[in-house]
């Protein structure tokens, strides 16, 4: 039996998955930087909270601009981000 010709398959297109609607448009706060890194690594807020040694509520509040991290967390955040944000 002959295989049907698939004339419409001339190749394929490379497409990247669209970014999450949560992805920050600009990086202007600690929360924006944390959110971007978390989404890039495909982590949950709970996982980032464990890495940084804070409550998951802190991550939620930072990412949603409800509060800012205290100075005592800056070094841990910079280690997580792998860079020091400039504001």
What is the topology?
Layout: H1 30-41, H2 45-52, H3 56-63, H4 74-81
Helix pairs in contact: 1-3, 2-3
Shape: globular
Number of strands: 0
* Number of H- or I-type helical stretches: 4
Portion of residues in helices? 40-55%
What is the end-to-end distance? 67 Å
CATH homologous superfamily grouping of the domain at 30-81? lambda repressor-like DNA-binding domains
What is the CATH class of the domain at 30-81?
Mainly Alpha
Would you tell me the overall average pLDDT? 89
Characterise the protein shown here:
The structure is a single chain. The protein has 87 residues and is mainly α. It has a domain at 30-81: 434 Repressor (Amino-terminal Domain) (Orthogonal Bundle), CATH 1.10.260.40. The protein has 4 helices and no strands. The chain has helices spanning 30-41, 45-52, 56-63, 74-81. Helix 1 (30-41) packs across helix 3. The longest helix has 12 residues, at 30-41. The protein is globular, with a radius of gyration of 20 Å. The mean pLDDT is 89.
Keywords summarizing the entry:
87 residues; mainly alpha; 434 Repressor (Amino-terminal Domain); 4 helices; 41% helix; globular
């Amino acid at each position: 039996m002959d295989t049907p010709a698939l004339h419409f398959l001339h190749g394929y297109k490379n497409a990247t998955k669209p970014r999450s609607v949560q992805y920050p448009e600009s990086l202007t706060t600690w929360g924006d930087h944390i959110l971007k890194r978390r989404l890039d690594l495909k982590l949950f807020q709970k996982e980032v909270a464990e890495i940084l040694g804070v409550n998951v509520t802190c991550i939620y509040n930072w990412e949603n601009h409800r509060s800012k991290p205290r100075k005592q967390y800056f070094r841990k955040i910079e280690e997580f981000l792998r860079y020091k944000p400039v504001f």
